[in-house]
Amino acid sequence: MGVVSAVRCRRAATVWLLSLTLAVPATAGCGILADDRPATQAASGPTPAAAAVVTRTAGPDAYERSGRPGNLRLVLPGADTAGPYPLVIALHSLFHDGGEAAGWGLDKLAKTAGFALVSPDGIDGSWNAGTCCDRAANASVDDVGWLHALIQHLESNYPIDPARVVIIGLSNGGMMAYRYACEHPEDLAGIAVVAGSLQQLGCRPNAPVTVVSVHGGKDGHVPGAGTPWQPALGTPITSTEQSLAPFRAADRCETPTHPGDVTAAGQDGAPRLSPTIGTSGAAVTPAQIRAVLAAVTPQAQPTAASGGPTTGPGAGGTAAPAPSSTTAASTTPSFTLLTVDPATSPADAVRTESTCATGTRVVDYYLPDVDHGWPPATGPGAFDTASVLWQLLSTARAHAASTGR
Q: What is the share, in percent, of the chain residues with pLDDT greater than 70?
């Protein structure tokens, strides 16, 4: 391994996997140690209309001056991938490091879909996402400023498209993605949060941004319904609905109560035969539908092969009995859940999305049979998370910030 020259910094497509030394370099340069093994060619992505403007700083930039210890793992697209290309920043969960992202399926996708993937380390395995988590939050580490400098550093040294930068985070990393989108939405085309929550108080994004949430119904660590206090993290947990609310407002999204806003989806994230999860004379909210799903007994609600509840109308479907829970009945409208044939229309997720006036998207996937963590790729509760997230984020573009909030 050796220090990459300024010329090779610009020739990003010649390198696959790199680790970044975070000490301030002695001379001007990108300060990257490279693995010089030959790279495997990858399928080229679409060529953007605009060419990248690659610049160099006169000396160490804010990121290089940070002196922050740790490793930065960088996977670049193949040599035949035309730049500028998107950048995906993968933020690990609490008490892990950037190496955790190797198990998410993004590395392979970066090579085939044609984007750069960077997986940095948080301080002592933590990110300061606001009220969480651990040392980063307790010491008020400026992770927002550091990530902002990292993005600028990579855009200066590689053919990154500034309009196509996204953050994907798991748990504490997802909380950090929310916080960054609150404070610098203009930097981002979008974010994806897996098993995370918004822990930044007073979040008011001043630019629209695409947001994708994936949350397991069995997650007791960062529950999708939120909790007044999570002892393990020392903070209240914001619900998924409340976490998405500031972004729905910034994106000018309609309330997701119209027919078709809530759909049954399979492992690929795509809607199944059902246009809606339930039928009713009045529109129902995702929270109300979830309450009914939780209250329906196994005998009343069939289970798909994946282990998740099966909902939505399909060929030969029959109506499921209404929930017997007094609490659920008193807080949800009267509507009927319909069953489907799991062989022809498996429903592994509840997908919520409404129309947003800005052209951005806010999409929520609720996986009834999944616990805390990155959803499994196979077995009960399987979900093709990496592909689903990239399918939604790949078409997103950054928006300029408004002058006032």
A: 67
Other CB atoms within 10 A of residue 55 CB:
9
Which tens digit of pLDDT belongs to each residue from 30-56?
333 222 222 333 333 333 333 334 445
Of 41-45, 59-63, 64-68, 234-238, the least confident: 41-45
Measured CA to CA, the distance from residue 392 to residue 269 in angstroms comes to 10
CA 286 – CA 139 distance, rounded (Å): 37
Residue among 273, 279, 289, 305 at smallest CA distance from 352: 289
Q: Give the total number of structural domains in the chain.
A: 2
DSSP code of residue 101: G
Closest C-alpha to 46, from 96, 87, 80: 80
Query: Which amino acid, residue 110?
Result: A
The sign of the torsion formed by the CA atoms of 31, 394, 148, 363 equals negative
270 shares a domain with 167 = no
pLDDT tens-digit profile of 232-242? 999 999 999 99
DSSP state of 178: H
Could you tell me which residues come within 8 angstroms of residue 106 by beta carbon, excluding any fewer than 6 positions away? 88, 90, 117, 168, 386, 390
Give me the domain span that covers residue 319.
Answer: 261-348
